[in-house]
Amino acid sequence: MTNNKIDMIMARQGIEGWSEINETGNLDALTKSFEFTSFEQASAFVQQVSIFAENIDHHPEWRTDGDGLIIHVKLTSHFANNTVTLNDFEVAQYMNQAFSDTQTTF
Questions:
Q1: In this model, does residue 39 exceed pLDDT 80?
Q2: At CB < 8 A and 24+ separation, what contacts does 65-71 make?
Q3: What is the reported pTM?
């Protein structure tokens, strides 16, 4: 069932732009960088994702660059020994939507 849900997310291109496979061919983490045009836009994205992540008790690792305009994200599931689970795919999909939302809001 979990694999079916992941396949559906991927078929919808829900994790478009996310790096899935490392150089050894393993799925260690989902990673992506989001670039914003203003600090306010980046902050709105982080706030929107933070609420979602808190509600599902799944928290991304992120850091900023470029005066806070670039947010680098890494998703793994700590409860699963830092492997990638369905939760990571769901958060990645949500983050893509949140990024689109902030692009149209600002």
A1: yes
A2: 66/35, 67/39, 68/39, 68/42, 68/43, 69/35, 69/36, 69/37, 69/38, 69/39, 69/42, 70/33, 70/34, 70/35, 70/36, 70/42, 71/33, 71/34, 71/36, 71/42, 71/45, 71/46
A3: 0.85
